[in-house]
Amino acid sequence: MNMLAEPLQKFATNSLESHWLPFTASRDFKAEPRLVVKSEGMYLWDHKGGKIIDGSSALFNVAAGHGRKEIIEAVHAQMLQNDYSPHFQLGHPGSFALSAKLSQILPEPFNHIFFVNSGSEAIDTALKIVMAYHRARGEGQRLRFVSRERAYHGVNIGGVSLSGLMKNREAFPGVIPNVVAMRHTWDSENTFVRGQPETGAELAEDLQRFCDMYGASTIAAVFVEPVAGSTGTLVPPKGYLERLREICDENGILLVFDEVITGFGRLGAPFAAQAFGVTPDIMTMAKAITNGTIPMGAVAARDEIYETITNSAPENAIEFFHGYTYSAHPVACAAGLATLDIYEREGLFDRAADLSGYFLDAIYSLKDIPAVRDIRGYGMMAGVEAWPEDGKPGVRGNRLQKELFWKGLHVKFTGDTAIVAPPLIAEKSHVDEMVDILRQTLSVL
Ligand code: PMP
Question: Gene3D superfamilies in the record, alphabetically (predicted)?
């Protein structure tokens, strides 16, 4: 470990200027750099040699744990075989194999997958699929999109337009028009509720109100994260997603589930659609699709959507004018296939369902700490929210994230909420280790 740590420590002190870090306060970071130099299994190591347990599956993507040899070998073999070939008017076998494999774990009838490179690209691609579909059906006037307060749908212009987070939008006005936001589903009455709250399904009536107010025939789609992830694990109240589905069906509106965090076993089922028994029309995914190794995202559409768009084009015409140089990159596809093999072989989605009870018991044991304002959780995902410091949201969270890191726990914060979402390979002892560090740290606030 020290062999690695030393040169990187030198690097850190000399070369922290050039990289403009994403979602990071630069001055703050340079004053106290935290560099990860190694990762393996459930752990990360920092440049000082510290060992840190990964409480958030890195960024909710490393679901099978770090350093999986099977993925590394598949990527290496693919690089040797075909490092890159274009997809426009050409193909390679890996993308067909991966889409077929994904279809097997997606609900019916999702047999068509469009590949992208990130969650943000998946969202912008989904927006375009929605528009192409309505246009192909002669309903091109459907251009209004419905999102939600506290929604996070990535950072590209489409995703920022759908965002329900003021911080993500305030500096970027002039994004796509005609987006309206339903209320979020957090309710102080449901503080410390575990799993789906019993009350709150009526919040779905916001969609009905928009139909009444704007005319249902102007609304193209509703985008929701089944469990709002980046804003602190907001679990949908019982009946809420079902009611959204009903209103969409009654009004020709498409329902899009953003499964970038909830996909690939996080909730104890392949996707949230199966966990909650509600099937959307379009699903976006990314992150754990390659276990975090190679950037990749995807959009899955119901067969009818794919067929409508495809059949609308005259023969030989391109039916969907969209794609990226790196859509379905052969190396990403190889990583994706190896990742799905691990999920299947190790039964990680079922494992998540089995471990969830223990995980949530441990997390909810933090409830008695005075600094803890709320806990929400479902599957292998929980939000532990601290009271804000001096009424200033986010200050305490920012400090806590650093403090926890130096004490040996990596956990992603949003505002004052720690989002705990360990790799699905975690043992009970790993859960205990995470919760112990959280308890020690939160108890002295
Ligand atoms: N949608 C959701 C629900 C997300 O949680 C995220 C990332 N946290 C994104 C989209 C954006 O994904 P990416 O960072 O890969 O662009």
Answer: Aspartate Aminotransferase, domain 1 (3.90.1150.10), Type I PLP-dependent aspartate aminotransferase-like (Major domain) (3.40.640.10)
How many whole angstroms from 179 Cα to the centroid of ligand 1?
19
Q: How far apart are CA 211 and CA 182, in angstroms?
A: 12
Residue 335 CA to residue 71 CA, distance in Å, equals 5
User: Exposed, middle or buried: residue 22 (CB in 10 Å: 0-12, 13-18, 19+)?
Assistant: exposed
At residue 314 the predicted structure's pLDDT band, cuts being 50, 70 and 90, is confident
**Which of 62, 157, 230 should be mutated for ligand 1, with most atoms under 8 A from CB?**
230
Regarding an ipTM greater than 0.95, the answer is yes
Q: Is 118 in the pocket of ligand 1 (CB under 6 A)?
A: yes
- CATH number of the domain at 70-345, out of 3.30.413.10, 3.40.50.2300, 3.40.640.10, 3.30.9.30? 3.40.640.10
Is the CB of 120 within 6 Å of ligand 1?
A: yes
DSSP state letter for 19: -
Q: What is the pLDDT of residues 342-365, one digit of tens each?
A: 999 999 999 999 999 999 999 999
Out of 60, 124, 261, mutate this one to test ligand 1's pocket (max ligand atoms within 8 Å of CB): namely 261
Collapse the DSSP code of 100 into the 3-class scheme (helix H, G, I; strand E, B; otherwise coil) and give the result.
helix
Question: Token pair for residue 337?
Answer: 């296939």
Q: Which of 11-15, 199-203, 412-416, 421-425 has the lowest mean pLDDT?
A: 11-15
| Residue minimizing CA distance to atom 13 of ligand 1 | 119
Residue spans per domain, the chain: 2-64+347-443, 70-345
- Chain segment 98-120, per-residue pLDDT in tens: 999 999 999 999 999 999 999 99
CA–CA distance, 329 with 293 (Å, rounded to integer): 13
The hierarchical CATH code for the domain 2-64+347-443 is 3.90.1150.10
DSSP H helix total and E strand total for the chain:
16, 15
User: What's the 67 CA to ligand 1 centre distance in angstroms?
Assistant: 22
227 lines ligand 1 (CB under 6 A): no
Answer yes or no: are the C-beta atoms of 78 and 94 closer than 8 Å. yes
Common-topology check for domains 2-64+347-443 and 70-345: no
Atom 1 in ligand 1: which residue has the minimum CA distance? 153
Give the Å distance between the CA of 311 and the centre of ligand 1: 31
Per-residue model confidence as pLDDT tens digits over 115-164: 999 999 999 999 999 999 999 999 999 999 999 999 999 999 999 999 98
